[in-house]
Amino acid sequence: MRDTIKGFAIAVSLSVMSTAAFAEGGVPLVAAASKPVTSAEITGSVPEKLNISKANVFNRLLKKIEDPNAAPPEDGIHDTANEATFALQPPKVAYEGWPRTEFGNHVDWVKALDDGLINPRYDRVDPDVEPFVMDLDIVRPVKASVPDVVFPHKPHTQWLHCSNCHPRIFVPQRGANQINMSAIILGEKCGVCHGKVSFPITTKSCKKCHSKPKPADWTPPLSEASVKNPWR
Fold first, then answer.
1. Which of 190, 194, 211 is nearest to 109 (CA)?
2. Which of 51, 56, 93, 49 is CA-nearest to residue 71?
3. How many helices and strands in the chain, by DSSP H and E?
4. Is the pLDDT of residue 35 over 80?
5. Domain stop point among 50, 81, 114
6. Which residues pair with 139 in a beta bridge?
7. If you average pLDDT over residues 208-225, what whole number do you get?
8. Is the pLDDT at 118 greater than 50, yes or no?
9. Which of 19, 112, 118, 231 has a 20 to 30 A CA-CA distance from 35?
10. SS3 for 226?
């Protein structure tokens, strides 16, 4: 009895499919599947939100700057309607003879500072205020196999007052700051400055921050799931 019902159900299903799939004369109502139709084929152009060439335009850290030391009237930052813009010294002239680096605007600012080539003004109003230099390195262990991060306070505090970073960007408390590369690339945490007024985050500049090698006996940490249910 079950086989009879099952066979009847299959027959009904096939008849329904046959009726739905073909019109009079046996012409199929539904065309055979083909490659997906793209939005460009429908509209004649690629929508702005789907244009891959526009990906990450919001991220200044991923943009390639054609000339990092363009003259003020040509850098896209200074106001060309202001006559004073044209009186400013071009960076390429100002930086001539300075220590070089392959990052950012190609000036090694930390070396220039250490060599006494520059003496940043610490206070906007009072030129006699001495900087509060903090010679303290913070090491942030990284779970991945890349070297750990070393943050040197000294070159930062030679330029900046503590309040530039604390507590708005970084809470001055151990374990209180969640930092990852995604946030930095999106202009948060270290990315508030790096990529804007300091060297950008690129594949070439990784070692400037990830500078402490892992110990010889280092092994990748196990996840919580691996600890609870280790496989052998």
1. 194
2. 93
3. 8, 3
4. no
5. 114
6. 150
7. 88
8. yes
9. 19
10. helix
Residues 148 and 85 in one domain: no
Domain co-membership, 200 together with 153: yes
Overall domain count for the chain: 2
Q: Is 217 inside any structural domain?
A: no
Tell me whether residue 16 is in a domain.
no
In a domain, 166, yes or no: yes
Q: Which of 37, 36, 57 is nearest to 48 (CA)?
A: 57
The whole domain housing 100 covers 72-114
Q: Answer for the pair 133, 157: CB distance below 8 angstroms, yes or no.
A: yes
**Tokens matching residue 76:** 């896209």
Using CA atoms, how far apart are residues 132 and 40, in angstroms rounded to an integer?
58
Q: What percent of the chain has pLDDT over 90?
A: 49
Using the CB atoms, write b or e for 22-59: b if 16+ within 10 Å.
eeeeeeeeeeeeeeeeeeeeeeeeeeeeeeeeeeeeee
**Is residue 29 assigned to a domain?**
no
Q: What is the side-by-side order of every strand in the sheet holding 210-212?
A: 137-140, 148-152, 210-212
The CATH number that applies at residue 198 is 3.90.10.10
Report the pLDDT value the prediction gives residue 150, as an integer from 0 to 100: 97
Which pLDDT value is given to residue 11? Answer: 46
pLDDT in tens, 70-111: 999 998 889 999 999 999 999 999 999 999 999 989 999 999
